[in-house]
Amino acid sequence: MLKVLVLISCLLSSVSSFAMDHREQFGVGGGMGGTFPAPWASPRFLDKSGPKFPAGGLWVRYIPGTPEIGLEISYHYFALSKQNIQSYSTIFSFISRQNPWGSFHPFYAFGVGYGRAYNWYTTGNWDAPVIKITAGIEFEMSDRLDVGLHIDHFSIFKNLPTEPNLHVLSPKLVLNYYFGSPAPMPQEKPVPSPVAAPAPAAAAPAPTTSTAPEATVQGKQKPKSKPQPSKKPRKKPAKRSR
């Protein structure tokens, strides 16, 4: 288990900050890990089963125009120790890939399928429906490659009343590769700026009808001023000689 944690930390430390939108793209992927009984399973099931490696899965997925959801068809294998129960199943799932324009993506899935379980208690080989619930996280490594960690929960219901139901957890390191040209990212429409209304035109001055050069006071013409005669300097009388 310690080696798995070290491997996960090394992968996360190498994750780039690249963000990619995979709308309208197909993806193929796979994962490897192990399986152990779910802690909430019945005591009888916990007594007859134990953890075992390896467990694996392969899948094909499609991300439609809405990037947060998608479809996936997958094939899974897991096994348990003690009674050596083995399960092979094909599952159709609805997936949710959150934060589509970020560099990491919380991942969820719910699927229903059909599979065969070998060494199924007293029944032997048992063909039965399989329910899968997945939670995990995926990181962008490049424009086409993701790595991540998934935890799958598988449920297979009993065939006979004397048999317990199967509930297991299967953590896996996963790898996804996308191909095809992604759809262009949606562009926000620019908000038009308000246009200022034009200023009103200034009123033209009223035409003047009076052409008289002189100003008027209360409707009467101002009298013209008379020219003042210029004053000549007086000559002093000449002194008489004695």
Can you describe this structure?
The structure is a single chain. The chain has helices at 2-13, 43-48; strands at 25-37, 49-50, 52-63, 69-79, 81-82, 86-97, 104-120, 124-140, 145-156, 166-179, 216-217, 220-221. It has an eight-stranded antiparallel beta barrel with strand order 1-3-4-6-7-8-9-10. The protein has a two-stranded antiparallel ribbon with strand order 2-5. Strands 11-12 form a two-stranded antiparallel sheet. The chain has one domain (2-179): Porin (Beta Barrel). It is mainly beta and 242 residues long. Residues 4-9 and 11-17 have low confidence and may be disordered.
What's the total number of strands? 12
The count of helical stretches stands at 2
H-E string: HEHEEEEEEEEEEE
CATH topology: Porin
Strand content: over 45%
Instruction: Give the tally of structural domains.
Output: 1
Question: What is the element layout, followed by pairings?
Answer:
Elements: H1 2-13, E1 25-37, H2 43-48, E2 49-50, E3 52-63, E4 69-79, E5 81-82, E6 86-97, E7 104-120, E8 124-140, E9 145-156, E10 166-179, E11 216-217, E12 220-221
Antiparallel strand pairs: 1-3, 1-10, 2-5, 3-4, 4-6, 6-7, 7-8, 8-9, 9-10, 11-12
Descriptive terms for the model:
7% helix; 8-stranded antiparallel barrel; 12 strands; 2 helices; two-stranded antiparallel ribbon; Porin; mainly beta; 242 residues; single chain
Summarize this, please?
The chain is mainly beta. It has helices at residues 2-13, 43-48; strands spanning 25-37, 49-50, 52-63, 69-79, 81-82, 86-97, 104-120, 124-140, 145-156, 166-179, 216-217, 220-221.
